[in-house]
Design the sequence.
């Protein structure tokens, strides 16, 4: 497999979603996870001890995240939006950072504008943020 990917959550609200995403990231081979502007109070539980294998980066704000983004790596926003490409028809970049939104507000429009791609999972309603991350990483894995 060529390339790599990372996945993270903007302004996450619940620590359980970070723990779940971390576990999914390890399971599907993500190179790293991250949070931007964490809101939760305690560290996430991690039943598989993914921290031993998949590093997590915590950025204070979007500016810090963008300043430290890997070179030549595409930012892919995962959000229900008019400009979204449905995930089944999406061709994942070789080097990608997947950005998920907060549980209650999603990814704001100004941040979606900074993404090279916007993708959505076709479903009848919005999904849990950690589950969404798992589906995106699984899709990437199966298409490679």
Sequence:
């Amino acid at each position: 497999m060529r390339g790599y990917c990372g996945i993270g959550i903007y302004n996450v609200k619940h620590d359980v979603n970070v723990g779940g995403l971390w576990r999914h990231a390890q399971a599907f081979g993500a190179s790293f996870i991250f949070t931007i502007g964490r809101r939760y109070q305690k560290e996430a539980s991690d039943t598989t001890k993914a921290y031993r294998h998949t590093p997590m980066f915590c950025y204070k704000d979007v500016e810090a995240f963008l300043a430290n983004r890997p070179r030549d790596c595409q930012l892919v926003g995962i959000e229900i939006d008019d400009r979204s490409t449905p995930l089944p028809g999406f061709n994942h970049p070789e080097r990608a950072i997947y950005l998920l939104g907060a549980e209650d507000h999603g990814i704001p429009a100004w941040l979606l504008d900074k993404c090279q791609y916007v993708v959505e999972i076709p479903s009848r309603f919005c999904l849990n943020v950690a589950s969404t991350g798992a589906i995106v990483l699984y899709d990437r894995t199966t298409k490679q």
